[in-house]
Each structure stands twice: as C-alpha cells, then as structure tokens.
Write a structure and sequence with these properties.
heterodimer, A: seven-stranded antiparallel β-sheet, 44% helix, B: mainly alpha, Rna Polymerase Sigma Factor, Chain: A, Arc Repressor Mutant, subunit A, 2 domains
Chain lengths: 243, 181
C-alpha cells in the first residue's frame, strides 16, 4: 500500500482524534455501567466462550444449529423421497452424508468445547484484569494510558508521555511523538551510540545518566524508551507494541 | 440459510475478547455517549458494537494497539450513528443533495499538491460517515467487501462513501486554494 500524503493525513487525523479521547481513569470515573448492561455483556462473553453461533442477529447455541440442520436435511431427503426423486438407498446415503457433515461441523466442536466449558464459565467474564497473563502485560507498554495491569502504576505527564512502573518496581519512561506533527524531543546523545532493531525498524540505544535509552521510529511515530534496565529488556518491551 | 459462523475458536481468542472488553468498554462508551447523549442507548450501542466485533473478530489485531482502538471506535460510532438516525437524534449528512463538480475518479494522488496540515484539517471537518470508511480502506487496507461486513452496509454504499469522501475533500481543498490563491 503506497504511503501517500492522503494516507498519512488520514492516519494522522485519526491519531489526533484518538488522543482527544480522555484517559481511561477519567472515563472510568465518568461512566458507570448499569447492572443490566453488565448482565447483558456477561451473557455475550459467555456465549462467545461457549461457542454459540450468531444467526440472524441472535446468539444461538451451536448444537441447536446442528440439530436444526439435521432436521432440515432430513426433511429435504424425505420430500425428495416422497416425490420419488431419490430411491431408498440414495436417500439413506444423502442423509448419512448430511448428518456426518453436520456432526463434523458442530458435534466435534461441541465435544471439545464441553471439556473446556467449566473453565470457560469460570474465567469467561471478569471485571478485573486477573486473567491477563502477567508475564505478557509486564512488558507491555501503554500506548495510551489504557493498557495497564491494576497492580502497576502509571502517570500521564504529557499527551504522549507515560511513566510506567512495572510489577518489579522499575520505572520506564515512554514517549511517543507523531512523525507528522507534535513537538520533537531533543536528546543529547553521548558518543557511543549502538544500533539495533525494534521489530523491523532501525533503532539506536545508548547509556546515559545510568539509564538505557532506546530510540526508534516506525511509519507513524518516533519513540523514546528509557529506564534502568538492560537493552534487551527495552527492546522486548518496544517489540510488544507490534505483537 | 444465512448463518454467521465466525466463531472464536481457541482459548487465546476467548481471552482476547474478554481483554478487549475490559480494555475498551469505557472508550467505546465515551464514543457512543457523545453521539447519543443517553446512558441507556449508549450502553445498547456498546453491546451491539461488541456483537459486531465478535462477528469480525478475525480482523482484530493486537489488543494493545492504536489500530485496534481506532477499529473499535469506528464500529461503535457506526452503531451509535445508526441508532441515532433511527431515533431521530442525529443530523445525518445528506449525501444525495450535495453535488460536486469534481470528477468521480479522484485518487490519493490528487492530494499530493495540497499542504499536509490543511488536508488533516479538512479531513477532521468531514463527517464520520466518510472518514471511517476512508480510514478503513486507505489506512488499514480493508477491501470494500470487508468494510461492508464491518459497517453492515451494502458494498455500493461503501463505494459511494469512499468516492464521495475523496470528492468532498478535494472540492474543499480546491475551493480554498482559489479563495486563498
């Protein structure tokens, strides 16, 4: 896809719009969901977890669709048989094939879903972030202050800047500046700059004031990530943005 | 029988859906409320938006990404605008009554001669009806068919919006150029 001026402008206008959305903690204070909504969402998430089927805008159990399809297939075969279009053995064969197909599509999945059902019901809906794998979130950088584990602390310092304290107490400073706009942060870099890669993007890292700095740019932003940790850790954190 | 069978098949997907809900429900609520100005209707819109997300789950990327956030905002806005239209709560841009003297074959190249900041400004003045489909098509690279599924619109309507959105932008930029020139 060509990176035309129009594409960049559209992207930038959307990024601006997204940045105008108040931070998560403000929204959490502003909007308290009703019990009805929570219940409805609980049902939706459960239905998703228990492998329901969305049909005609309705959430229907997968096995019910399977039964319905067997009934329809049976009716069609009987109708064809009554009109002498199919002989007895062909009708049996057609119905068996249809039944097998339906069982393969719905029955087998239902069986595998059944074994996971108990776990799904237990973990299917949670108002907390408890089920988020801690090992993954530990290194996730909050792109905007919406993604954080509740055990962690964060503080928005400017529109694109976040100080992030991870589970083991390391403070990581993260800054994101749109390429087509925003104020460019000036960094006084020391002489010993090392090059590396973040995902597919060229990056540099250096040590300054006891902190490791990692700087890179992708097609949308320039990023600065610094903290009292090893380069590998910073790169791992940076790459979590592109997961 | 038209049955939608886009199911969330493995454990990872199921956790992802819950994570999406926990991460973005407030952002989606904010988007819906700013259009509907009613808590109950906004909650309905967020719920319907999540149903649509489940139907288009294959198109959702990493949970913690600006693209996913934009994707969810677009879906919620689309659902909320449809509800607002149904309830007579929103002024919908009248697509048919506006006639532009710009040719139908407007492309991205036609924007190259205009100032970047002005393009951004004009895009931001454009109704979401157009910007959302343009974003999905031009930035995210979704096909007309995919956008039609995401927005629950006919393919012709999507094509029309893409074409008209570009035309309105070029028209505004060109007229401004003449006035300022």
């Amino acid at each position: 896809m060509a990176d035309s001026k129009f594409r960049r402008a559209l992207n930038y206008s959307f990024l601006q719009e997204m940045d105008e959305i108040p931070p998560q903690y403000e929204l959490e204070r502003k909007y308290v969901f009703s019990q009805d909504f929570e219940e409805k969402m609980k049902k939706l998430i459960k239905s998703v977890n228990k492998k329901y089927v969305y049909a005609f805008g309705l959430v229907l159990p997968r096995y019910a669709i399977g039964i319905l399809m067997i009934v329809i297939a049976g009716s069609v075969v009987l109708m064809l048989r009554s009109r002498n279009i199919l002989d007895r053995s062909t009708a049996r064969l057609v119905f068996s094939v249809a039944e097998l197909l339906v069982l393969l599509m719905f029955g087998v999945s239902l069986k595998s879903a059944g074994s996971k059902m108990t776990t799904s019901i237990q973990t299917g809906f949670s108002d907390t972030d408890e089920e988020t794998p801690a090992t993954e979130l530990e290194f996730d950088i909050p792109v905007s202050p919406v993604n954080y584990s509740k055990s962690n602390e964060y503080r928005t310092t400017t529109l694109h800047t976040v100080e992030y304290k991870d589970a083991v107490g390391r403070i990581i400073y993260y800054e994101r500046i749109p390429i087509n706009g925003g104020v460019l942060t000036k960094i006084d870099t020391p002489d010993n700059i090392n090059s590396c890669k973040v995902h597919q993007w060229e990056a540099i890292w250096f040590e300054k004031n006891g902190q490791t700095h990692l700087v890179w740019a992708d097609s949308l932003y320039r990023y600065i990530l610094k903290g009292d940790c090893e380069t590998g850790t910073l790169i791992k954190m940076a790459e979590s943005l592109y997961k | 029988m038209i049955i939608y069978l886009s199911l969330l098949d493995d454990q990872e997907d199921r956790s992802k859906f819950t994570l999406l809900y926990n991460t973005y429900r407030h952002t989606m609520m904010h988007t819906a409320y700013s259009i509907l100005n009613d808590q109950g209707l906004a909650e309905d819109a967020v719920h319907d938006a999540f149903v649509r997300v489940a139907k288009n789950f294959g198109k959702v990327g990493a949970v913690n990404s600006p693209q996913t956030r934009a994707f969810l905002v677009i879906i919620t806005r689309n659902v909320a605008l449809t509800m607002a239209k149904r309830n007579g709560r929103a002024l919908i841009f009248d697509e048919e009554s506006t006639i532009y003297a710009i040719a139908d074959n407007t492309t991205d190249k036609d924007f190259e001669n205009f100032d970047f900041d002005r393009i951004v400004q004009v895009i931001r003045q454009l109704p979401a009806t157009y910007t959302d489909v343009l974003y999905l098509n031009v930035v995210e690279g979704y096909s007309v068919k995919e956008i039609s599924a995401i927005m629950e619109l006919g393919t012709e309507a999507v094509k029309k919006r893409l074409q008209r959105g570009r035309k309105i932008l070029i028209d505004k930029l060109t007229r401004e150029g003449i006035v300022n020139g």
